[in-house]
Amino acid sequence: MKIITWNINGIRAVHKKGALKKFVEQESPDILCLQEIKAGTEHIPKEMSYLSQYLSYYNSADKKGYSGVAVYCKEKPLDVDNKIGLAEFDKEGRVLRLKFKKFVLYNFYFVNGGKSQEAFDLKLKAYDHLTAYLKKELDRGEKIILVGDFNVAHQEIDIARPKANEKNVGFTKEERQKITNLLEIGFIDTFRVFNKEGGHYTWWRPFANARTNNVGWRIDYVFVSKNLKPNLKSAFILPKVMGSDHCPAGIEL
């Protein structure tokens, strides 16, 4: 089973470019999780027939053209939810939870947190809420997969210029600790199971030739609970896939 996450920075834009069609036909993931779709279900392009083999699930923000996540899957989930119980987070269309027979999948799009102190505080609050929420699921013995844009570079190896960004949102000590907290309750950063080297990123600033020069950040992740580690076959990042300021990342189970 191949599971892929990708912040597409607008589903209508990436479709219009032909990038999503090309990617799906090339990779054919079993589950495709998208973030920042920036569209309600009524705005999803009807010409996306290349996704017709998938069941589709959406969660859109109350605010039009903002945030939003989608999951496309070949197997029908047993249950679908779009809330984690934190009102400020839930109203922005930032999560989908799909329960399958063998695992629970979460697709997240975390707030950037850089626009204001209030936004930054919400980001930290959402991480704390999520960690407590997931710990209860782990305590029940659930096998869990977390994917999405977490908007934090966890370690110095995950960012091209760590010293220059120590005080910048996305790489503050407070945010990095939130990722550490997730790992400590029982999750694994799948990419780091197979690759311990730097230079692998999933997002680049859309100016100053950042992507060409690979001056990037790794802020898109696939985490799995430790009880799924025996099923983990590979983890990867696909930096050559164009169409967004992010690139896809994924795993094979």
Describe, in plain words, how this protein is organized in 3D:
The chain is of the alpha+beta class. The chain has one domain: Endonuclease/exonuclease/phosphatase (Deoxyribonuclease I, Chain A), CATH 3.60.10. Helix content is 23%, strand content 25%. It is built from 6 helices and 14 strands. It has helices at 11-16, 19-27, 87-90, 117-139, 173-184, 190-194, and strands at residues 2-7, 31-35, 55-59, 69-73, 79-81, 95-99, 104-109, 144-149, 187-189, 203-204, 216-217, 220-225, 234-237, 249-252. It has a 6-stranded mixed beta sheet with strand order 3-4-2-1-14-13. It has a 6-stranded mixed beta sheet with strand order 5-6-7-8-12-9. A two-stranded antiparallel sheet has the order 10-11. Strand 7, helix 4 and strand 8 form a beta-alpha-beta unit. Helix 4 (117-139) runs parallel beside helix 5 (173-184). The longest helix has 23 residues, at 117-139. The radius of gyration is 17 Å and the shape is globular.
H/E order of the elements? EHHEEEEHEEHEHEHEEEEE
User: How many separate domains make up the residues?
Assistant: 1
Largest sheet at a glance?
Answer: 6 strands, mixed
Classify the beta-strand content into a percent band.
15-25%
CATH superfamily assignment? Endonuclease/exonuclease/phosphatase
Give helix % range: 10-25%
What general outline do the C-alpha atoms trace? globular
* Order of the strands making up the biggest sheet: 3-4-2-1-14-13
CATH architecture: 4-Layer Sandwich
CATH class: Alpha Beta
* C-alpha Rg (nearest Å): 17 Å
In the predicted model, the low-confidence regions spanning at least 5 consecutive residues are none
How many helical elements? 6
> How many strand elements?
14
For this structure, the CATH topology is Deoxyribonuclease I, Chain A
**Chain-averaged pLDDT:** 95
Q: Output the structural class.
A: alpha+beta
- Could you tell me how far the N terminus lies from the C terminus, measured between alpha carbons in angstroms? 5 Å
